[in-house]
Write a structure and sequence with these properties.
Two copies of one chain form a homodimer. By secondary structure, chain A is an alpha/beta fold. Helices cover 41% and strands 12% of the residues of chain A. Chain A has 17 helices and 14 strands. In chain A, strands 3-10-9-8-7-4-5-6 form an eight-stranded mixed sheet, sandwiched between helices. In chain A, helix 9 crosses helix 10. Chain A is globular. Chains A and B meet through helix 2, helix 7, helix 9, helix 10 and helix 13 of A and helix 2, helix 7, helix 9, helix 10 and helix 13 of B.
Amino acid sequence: MADSRTTSRTPSRTTSQTSSWTAAWELLLPTAAAPPRKRGRTLQSALREAVRSGRIAAGTRLPSSRELAADLGVSRGLVTDAYEQLTAEGYLNSSRGSGTWVSGAARATAAREHRRPAADAPGTGFLPGTPDLSLFPRAAWSAAHRRVLARLPHSGLGYPDPRGLPELRAAVAGLLTRRRGVVADPESVVICSGVAQAMTLLGFTLAGLGHRAVAVEDPGSPENTALLSAAGLTAVPVPLDAEGTSPAALAASGARAAQLTPCHQFPSGLAYSARRRLELLEWARAVDGLLLEDDYDGDFRYDRAPVGALQGLDPARVAYAGSVSKSLAPGLRLGWLVVPEHLVDLVVERKRTMDLGNPALDQALLAEFIERGDYDRQLRRCQRAYRERRDALVAALAEHFPGTEVTGIAAGLHIIARLPRRYGPEARFLERAAEAGVALRPLADFARRPAATPAHSPDENAEGDGDAGGAGQVRLVMGYAHLSPARIARAVALIAEARAPGLPGTPR
Amino acid sequence: MADSRTTSRTPSRTTSQTSSWTAAWELLLPTAAAPPRKRGRTLQSALREAVRSGRIAAGTRLPSSRELAADLGVSRGLVTDAYEQLTAEGYLNSSRGSGTWVSGAARATAAREHRRPAADAPGTGFLPGTPDLSLFPRAAWSAAHRRVLARLPHSGLGYPDPRGLPELRAAVAGLLTRRRGVVADPESVVICSGVAQAMTLLGFTLAGLGHRAVAVEDPGSPENTALLSAAGLTAVPVPLDAEGTSPAALAASGARAAQLTPCHQFPSGLAYSARRRLELLEWARAVDGLLLEDDYDGDFRYDRAPVGALQGLDPARVAYAGSVSKSLAPGLRLGWLVVPEHLVDLVVERKRTMDLGNPALDQALLAEFIERGDYDRQLRRCQRAYRERRDALVAALAEHFPGTEVTGIAAGLHIIARLPRRYGPEARFLERAAEAGVALRPLADFARRPAATPAHSPDENAEGDGDAGGAGQVRLVMGYAHLSPARIARAVALIAEARAPGLPGTPR
């Protein structure tokens, strides 16, 4: 997979980007400004540093020496010398006739220096949680930035309203009402830095109201435990059955608040049944509690109309959180929270002491993006791309691992694959896949620690596999959104080959 | 002052901005796309909405009907009709020969809808804390955004490193080493959303280490109390003497950490003496404590070399915080924290659970801005502008209020003015100024509540005024950065006239 990873990090030289990208060489390698005698050394060290720091990604093909010399305004000999020097040092690879690339050798250094979490590097496998960052609409985003800066009054650059820019709150309220069936008006929307911050804000707010614990789904995202704990709350794992979080277990948990992913449970992929939704709302009313709805991928639903948000059923008992992390990019750190009216001021005051509010320009930009219809366009584009990838993954599994049960496919950016027992044991399977360069995440990673009380005992998942230990059957949470259909097919084939060494098609 | 306030909110039509601003009319008033029969109504409602929402600020002069018709691609009659209609409705003002403006009537609505804090609206007076937002380098910032989006690898749009983008941490470490005498390497820098978040992060970190209280300066920023309290800490006010926070009072406070503004104390403007700096560091070592240095305006020093940061004297005992809020814009929500090595991981983990890290694009943009020298250019530009404004304010006070003692003038964006007693009592003076439309902030606003223990008793400020009650002598904290020299002179004249009604030059 190393080759495909590096390919994906190479900035694409599409028509619209060529001129800016060309201009960027001057910025990366500011050589002409150096005194003539020092230009050679300046160019070499700038190029070395750009590769080491990861600014020019491994796998990037460099311009020809003639082109780069012209861009930088230096003699071609200087560029040739620099290329030769850095090739000798291992930073670059050259081969006659096919040009010069940034080698893989420097990649390890760059990755270490950048301390990026592994899930952040696309193409390393089927790890869930990352959208396809190459779908980010760079041109439209850049144009929106320019327009916003041109029209924003000066006061728009001052301290932001901690609850969020009014235009953005209005745009988000409209968007959520229209797309997710959320009951929202601008006064109940709080702009925040994504679902993680939304959960932290709610956690502190609940702690301030005297809550001590919040129920969380089991299996579920391990991150929630850390977020709630930072707010001084205990996360109490509550098992799921086939319809969603079990109301009996919830009642026994002692918590008066529960964090849920009812539209597409993470990681199992199930959608809470209508009956279960009502039961959970009844519970919340009975304990004077709150449901925290994490709608992390609600925008992506492939085979029928999206499941509306739980919040729409009782806006006084549900706080709803979402973000642009899956639809645009996690790096934007922009999300929203729709809170019951009696909690708005508490949440906003917490937001204020946390960071005074989200960056004003980013907010104006997203408001404009939504208002102009660019955001809907982007969602349609992602939806098409992700449906195609999901289909590719399901097909590849059927081809290479016949008998695999695939669930949670109707929505979101990942599926659950339960392989027939003959492919086990799981530990061995994962090891072989890793050797072939394909990272996989077992479902067992998302199970909470079994607790001692009956309410938290490892209840059998009603979806049908009685292999709770995970030692035998292979059960995977497979994220597919960041991989092209061709790479999905190749990666699944690689795993299959890795399982059967010696057969034709032995892994590289 | 109403007129000057609205003037300042009007986007300036400088040469470089004219084309973008012109283009913006099409975006604000998208009329040509409507069916011909509906264009008139579309234009009217778009214009009304733009005024009501504050997108076109009160006081903005609209283009002539001929110009706007050309920009929008509609007939001139439609524009004339729209102007007449909205003038009749009170949104616009027209007068023959001098054009059409957005009226003040809609301003109140817009302000209410936006819920902007009063200090955020520039031009309402000498309130401290706001830089001149019209100095924000829009063109350079926009260009940097375009370049960054053109070169950033896709992975740069993923989840950020919670400690900050490596390039930005390196750029900030270099900047602070060079400009502020901070001892910083990229590993000790944490990027955050501004000084407020820096203090919140440190507050939570200290609370996690068992601290219960943090000493704060008296007088000082009231905001710190709220930030520390949100982190579960008590802010203990500690009086200043002529050299800075009193070590004896600090020792008696019971706290093992102290938040300080040693380079330009807020609001008094004094710079801590060299001896006091050493005494405070000794105290921190003796109690195994920490000093929290808020370098909120350290970049602006007018008459001699900047006072280096306290942190440089003992990086293991001082956490240093700064931001771009005064140099670029508070709306960017970008700042930094330099922390002692043993605290880095704790602070970063807190940052992670708070928001997962600052927006990636904004960080890449600031890194590029610093690396290219644009940030230094911006600081020089602000420095020039602010020195001129300070001089204008000092001169105007000398002219209209002879005998006024002005202190804290060597640095920062505000001064302290102590008027001769004949101008008192203060309450009456403030009232008259407010009637003339000039908002003023008395020094007394920044005094902490007198506490019962001797350490916190209202110690006489050693700078020479024995009027601690504030009822008599007029003592003002005057922010000047957001006002042009001409407006500064006019506003001071207005206050002087307001004091003496009936004399020539009665206030309007």
